[in-house]
Amino acid sequence: MAKHPPLLHPVVRTHPVTGKQALFVNEGFTTRIVEVSEKESAALLNFLFAHVTKPEFQVRWRWQPNDVAIWDNRVTQHYANADYLPQRRIMHRATILGDKPYYRAGNACSRLRHQPRAAEKSGCCIARCFPEAAPDAAFPGDRSVGNGEP
């Protein structure tokens, strides 16, 4: 944990291009919502994890030769099903460094990004995640709450 201290990021993030908001929680990485009790955090995260994995939010693709899938991790979650055998799966990953999640609600949250208690009181719910769960985490060394704006 010393090598990869916990990171703080907003539970709802603003997409830097579209301005739309999306949940930014992931069962594999998000461990707690700060500024609420552990019991409240666990209940809220369980609700959010169940919500983001509902079938109505899923896309299932029937692969054909030469298909390519591209998604924006800023607003999606993904996983691969092992349902492609006996076919081979080839995957290449590109990660954009420097894209820092933030939440914009009249800029209140960005102004409070280094004040977690004040941010939470203003409705800027902040989550904590542990990057050691994924050695190739996209935000190495980023420890700021809210993470600023583009």
What does this structure look like?
The chain is of the alpha+beta class and 150 residues long. The chain has one domain: Clavaminate synthase-like (Double-stranded beta-helix, 4-Layer Sandwich), CATH 3.60.130. Helices cover 17% and strands 12% of the residues. It has three helices and five strands. Strands 1-5-4 form a three-stranded antiparallel sheet. Strands 2-3 form a two-stranded antiparallel ribbon. The chain is globular. 17% of the residues are buried.
Number of DSSP strands?
5
Series of H and E elements: EEEEHHHE
CATH architecture, by name, is 4-Layer Sandwich
Tell me, briefly, the overall form: globular
Protein name: Alpha-ketoglutarate-dependent taurine dioxygenase
Keywords: Dioxygenase, Iron, Metal-binding, Oxidoreductase
GO molecular function, one term: metal ion binding
InterPro entries: AtsK-like (IPR051323), TauD-like_sf (IPR042098), TauD/TfdA-like (IPR003819)
What's this model, at a glance?
The protein is an alpha+beta fold and 150 residues long. The chain has one domain (7-133): Clavaminate synthase-like (Double-stranded beta-helix).
Main attributes of the structure:
single chain, 150 residues, alpha+beta, Double-stranded beta-helix, two-stranded antiparallel ribbon, 3 helices, metal ion binding
Could you give the topology of this structure?
Blueprint: E1 7-10, E2 12-14, E3 21-23, E4 30-33, H1 38-52, H2 108-111, H3 116-121, E5 126-129
Domain TauD/TfdA-like: 2-95
EC number: 1.14.11.17
Protein name: Alpha-ketoglutarate-dependent taurine dioxygenase
